[in-house]
Amino acid sequence: MDDQAKSMMDKLGLDARLLGMIGALVVIWIVFGFFTDWRFLSPRNFFNVSVQTASVAVMATGMVFVIVTRNIDLSVGSMLGFIGMTVAALQVQWLPSVLGLGHPMIWVIAVFAAILMGAVLGAAQGWVIGYLTVPAFIVTLGGFLIYRGAMWWVTKGQTQAPLDPIFRLLGGGAEGTLGETLSWVFGTVAAVVAVAIMLLSRRRKATHGFTVKPVWAEGILMAMAAGLIMAFVWIMNSYPIPRGAMRRMTEARGIEYTDGMVWNHGVAIPVVILLAVTIVMTIIATRTRFGRYVYATGGNPEAASLSGIDTRLLTVKVFALMGALTGIASIIASARLNAVDVGLGTLDELRVIAAAVIGGTALSGGAGTIYGAVIGALIMQSLQSGMASVGVDAPLQNIVVGFVLVLAVWIDIVYRRRAGV
Amino acid sequence: MTTPLVEMKDISISFGGIKAVDHVSVDLKPGEVVGLLGHNGAGKSTLIKILSGAYAMDTGEILINGEKATINNPRDARTYNIETIYQTLALADNLDAASNLFLGRELVGPTGFVDDDAMEAETRKIMARLNPNFKKFKDPVSALSGGQRQSVAIARAVYFNARILIMDEPTAALGPHETQMVSELIQQLKAEGIGIFLISHDIHDVMELCDRASVMKNGKLVGTVDVADVTDDDLLGMIILGKKPGES
User: Fold this and answer.
1) Same domain flag for B110 and B71
2) Which CA distances in Å does B191 have to B21, B121, B184, B188, B212?
3) What are the chain A neighbours of B92 within 8 Å (beta carbons)?
4) For chain A, does the N or the C end have fewer beta carbons within 10 angstroms?
5) ipTM value of the model?
6) Rounded to two decimals, what is the model's pTM?
């Protein structure tokens, strides 16, 4: 029976680590569900967890490349704060005085500024690491202090609020979602695309004469992919918007509000951003030369450079990408809070590293997946939200998360040793 | 006289004041196997890494087909059809055979994305020729045996139509059967007109496979001899004493 299950798993081609992470996630959800009268498994909570995961998960996808190339980035939390504060000041003080308050271009400029600023700061760090050969640990530890200090200087420590109304939508909330109809459209398109990609890949393999998975296995995988996407949309579309927000939204759209009206949230915009980032980063990791070189350099830096790969320039690119993603994460984090104070992003670097590592990224380099890091971030956030909802106080939450991190890495080491990889 | 495929003239390189290669000249003709001999630290691998683009020489020049060549990095060397099988194999252990074979020269589809399936298909073809027992196309090369890893490294050098092949201790980690396979491969490549620099510790290998042998000691060239004109002991004398046969 055991062998039969194993051979079925082999045919499905799902790796044990992915199943283990999903298993851990489900256990966490069920345990916290049990202790909260199943409130933890309500659409409302899933919506909140998905939004709270987005910022850290976006950065974790970049941290995978950083760690795979045998580096580390301790600066992302401070950089997120610095970018957030700069971009907030841009929206609150500088741009309104030039363009006028509420100008429709403000959010566009803010978004570009955030991403560009992250890419430039990251590239600068990457240059010092790659070309001046200062260890990444030191360079980014320096960045950690520098950005936190620079953040204070931007506004002399003043909190910046409120942010541009359109920019705020990027952080979620009642208005910052796709809405019900668009969410269904989004889900359907995503499901169709996922199935189409699997079919195309199968056909390509068949034309080369490779053995492909049995039809039933491929069918199950397609059904699972489409099913998961649609189930997620369905849950997000089952969370009604509270009355206060409804009144505000109906008024803004010129619709008369009645007591019987029910609007649901749908998929939050930061989650859409996270999905887009995950897909793009997965394509970069698996289907581009740059991604291939990232993994080759992590596996054997000498072999990579003997193969003609410019590993110094690669380091600059990896850190620039990490910075750009930190810029995106900073948009999500500041928009969600609708304010930026000097504490924004504190300890995020550790959450991001933990998410990547829980997701199976090896600190020795060369191994790690994008989806793993995203699931890792989801596990971390689920733990944190779950403990908060059962009333565990903050210090104990940190203690538990710390233990879980060490435990997860130990399990990963044991798994690697057994699997011989 | 045919134009030599490669002429390395008066090459020197120093690391931190130590002359690793000191005014050395060697050459290689099409269809010829030239052995490079010497103790550890004699400068063989360093000399060859200059040709493969891993190190930049301090002085000297390299001619390919009689024309001056500029080789500043491994990419340049590849454009001259110089391929190298390193002693360490230079494989990324975490990647599969196809990714290693095409590392730095990935096949891309019309959309510019890496085409793994095409690379695997090509890898299967060349492996069927070089090592028909090779089956682990999906596994990272860390999961392969020493001989299988070696065949990936050899496949990488052979696949891209090398005209100049550098083999640094190609049989050091191999069993007798696999060593035999490498010998046959060298004969076959030689017949195709490829020039081969063979770095080896093993005098018997050199006597069997090489046309000429260049011996190095302490970074200097002791001399280059036709293998047919010398005995094992002559070569040993050159390696150990640094004296050419006939010198007292």
Assistant:
1) no
2) 31, 27, 11, 5, 16
3) 295-297, 299-300, 303-304, 366
4) N
5) 0.89
6) 0.92
